[in-house]
Amino acid sequence: MSRDMTMVRIYLSESDRSKNHNTMKTIFQRLHDQHKVHGVTVFRGIAGFGGRGQVHAADLLRLSVDLPLVIEFFDESETVHSALSWIRDMVPPEHIVFWEVRTLAS
Amino acid sequence: MSRDMTMVRIYLSESDRSKNHNTMKTIFQRLHDQHKVHGVTVFRGIAGFGGRGQVHAADLLRLSVDLPLVIEFFDESETVHSALSWIRDMVPPEHIVFWEVRTLAS
Amino acid sequence: MSRDMTMVRIYLSESDRSKNHNTMKTIFQRLHDQHKVHGVTVFRGIAGFGGRGQVHAADLLRLSVDLPLVIEFFDESETVHSALSWIRDMVPPEHIVFWEVRTLAS
């Protein structure tokens, strides 16, 4: 009645670039086109900081700031780890978190 | 000092309907009124795709699009599975993910 | 190739105050300055309710409402539990959820 899956969350910020391309869009597109994972959702945070301790936050006076983004997806462990093998070249490894979940899919 | 709970995330999009009602609002209302779960939070993503591979994204030129929604809630395993027994009739089962967590509640 | 971490999600609402200070900002600042955790991201939900069953939601006619906030962070178990020891004095304990994850950090 349920199936084991691996959930991933990848922490980026809006300005992240990899070889001149937007990191979020590159990861999103390859998860869609190449890995055909079950689903991907991208969330924008309202404040955050990463490994370097820099604070990213939205406030009323600065409408356009470098906000945190999270890419979330899940699929079978093998598909996930195949995707992480190239994502880890684009994102600091401590920004990639994963854990086991279950879906109701049979 | 801590208590086992089951966390659930349900992946929808803004346009999802079930018997002519907004799926998100229907699930939200029943979790509140009928199951009285500890808490429910609904998040809107900025981009996503689901099982059919359709991309949902917000950009500056199309302000009103069909964005991804996630309903998140947690409670004791029994309460969660009682809720999932009807939610699974409204949402594709591979869009419902759950895992074990702990709260600090005693 | 991977490292165990503890993930935390803390459920607040925008109006939460602790000793006259904004609860979200106080927690965010101390996680940054004192605990130097790997990363913190704050998300705003579009609807939610907590332990008291009050619904918080954004709609087109009420632009300024008391929306749900989630503070998410992860780090080694010891660092997380050191932070939770004072966070639990500011937030109802059933609003603090944690679980084990892994990062790709070596």
Write the element-wise H/E pattern of chain A from the N-terminal end onward: EEEHEEEEHE
As residue ranges, the low-confidence spans of chain A are none
Give the % helix of chain A: 10-25%
Assign an overall shape of chain A. globular
What structural class results from the helix and strand content of chain A?
alpha+beta
Q: Which pair has the most extensive contact?
A: A-B, 22 and 23 residues
Average residue pLDDT of chain A: 88
The total count of strands of chain A amounts to: 8
Short description:
Three copies of one chain form a homotrimer. In chain A, the strands form three sheets. Chain A has a four-stranded antiparallel β-sheet with strand order 4-7-1-8. In chain A, strands 2-3 form a two-stranded antiparallel ribbon.
What does this structure look like?
The structure is a homotrimer of 106-residue chains. With 106 residues, chain A is of the alpha+beta class. The first copy, chain A, contains two helices and eight strands, in the order E-E-E-H-E-E-E-E-H-E. Chain A has helices spanning 23-33, 77-87, and strands at 3-13, 17-18, 21-22, 39-44, 47-49, 55-57, 68-75, 96-103. In chain A, a hairpin with a 5-residue loop joins strand 5 (47-49) and strand 6 (55-57). Chain A starts with a strand and ends with a strand. The mean pLDDT of chain A is 88. Strand 8 of chain B pairs antiparallel with strand 8 (96-103) of chain C, so a sheet runs across the interface.
